Amino acid sequence: MLILLVGISCGLLLWLSLRKANRLTFELIQEKVYSIAASTAPRVDGDLVESLKSPDQEGTPEYNLIRDKIRAVRDANSTGALPVRFIYIIRPLEDGTWEYVVDAQEEGDERSYLGDVVEFEKEIEKPSLDQPSVDDHYAQDSFGIWLSAFAPVLNSGGEPVALVGVDIVAQRIQTMLRQLLIGDLVAMLSALLLASALAAWISGKITKPLTELRDFVREIGRGNFGSRIEVKSNDEFGELATSINQMVEGLEERESLKGALVHYVRSQAADSKVTESEISETTERKITALVAELCGFRQLSSKLGSERVFALLNEYFSTMIDVVLRHGGSLEKSSDESFIAIFGSNGDDLHQERHAVEAALEMQNALAKLLNEWNVQTNKPVFLEVGIHSGNAQVQHTGMQDQLEYDSVHAVVDSAAEIVAIGKEKGNRLTLSDLTAENLHHTFPLEAVEEEDFDFVLFRLTMPKPQLR
Predict the structure, then answer these.
(1) Res 316: pLDDT
(2) Which of 18, 24, 311, 404 has its Cα between 20 and 30 A from that of 172?
(3) Which residue, among 106, 103, 124, has the nearest Cα to 115 in the 3D structure?
(4) If we measure between CA atoms, which residue out of 117, 105, 116, 114 comes closest to residue 57?
(5) What does the alpha-carbon distance between residue 147 and residue 165 come to, in Å, rounded to a whole number?
(6) pTM of the entire structure?
């Protein structure tokens, strides 16, 4: 009876833990494939995609340019527990069907060509052209088990013209979970046949790793993505722990690519319509915009291959985003050479100017350390040119949340971008407007900048030489 009770308890705990782990696995795969699609779409030139209309344009320089760009993304994400297998661009036709435009796949049976029809089993499977999406269930075919995500490609007018599709291979994770389940069931049934003297030892051996796995899954469910489960064995539990650790690392990778996602989400939020009944009032809030341009990056691109450049960009943006978030800022937009951060957007921050300047100083120091670690020799220096400006933005107070009005934020950001241009001409590295610097003269060594054609008085801050270790 005791052995039966232990067996039932272990079986129930095994089922609950594996069920939670399977759901977490699916959500982590969704996060990764979604982030890859959403971060790849802004890198694709929508005007070039629109120009590809005939199958005889396949192999043209325009086609190859788009193909090589999405192929670099595929190759950079083709390893690990969740490799990307296919990246492609599709678009809808007037008759309701969809066609392939560009496929990153090499020549072979698995490649789709310009003009090939996209086959959907059901009408509901067709993605939306206006917004990014990710499948809510696995798809299975003769090539394996997949999870797909789509993100719109915009032309120069800001209109969606096609979708970037990303297919990630989920078969390995499914196989490992299935093997784990079978192995655990066999172990449990074998334990029930052993003598009572071995029952306690067997139940303890099974229960302990399951308990640790359950507690770890709960921590992940609470949002603690920085933790890792300790791998103590090489059995199925150890494999599952290793796989979950890898998936959590994939989630952190998604966080490092949030620049492209935040740009899309903020744009959508700014463009969304709010009815008069939903707006309780509109007030002003002071914000501080930081624009940082990575100068000298083009020479890195010309010296390194596309895969290395993509990897370095991932590390660069991940580091800079961490710095901004650590100082209370939020990412507004990112591109290959610059990004924009906003301080004070989530509520009144009395020290937002100081936080922005401290973030800029740490970003410059972090870039110097990265360049030292990369060990890339260049003819011209690679550095961050930073401009900071403070101003008022309109805030709409709705029933659920506060929303910054896009045009007022854009005006502050434009001024910061002009400050960057002036700083580059004068070799400042870090330039502030008087609206930002008015409360910082006793905190940082500021020096006035002579510039008569600008609306604000400017100050430069000489950045200390980074201490490399």
Answers:
(1) 85
(2) 311
(3) 103
(4) 114
(5) 10
(6) 0.43
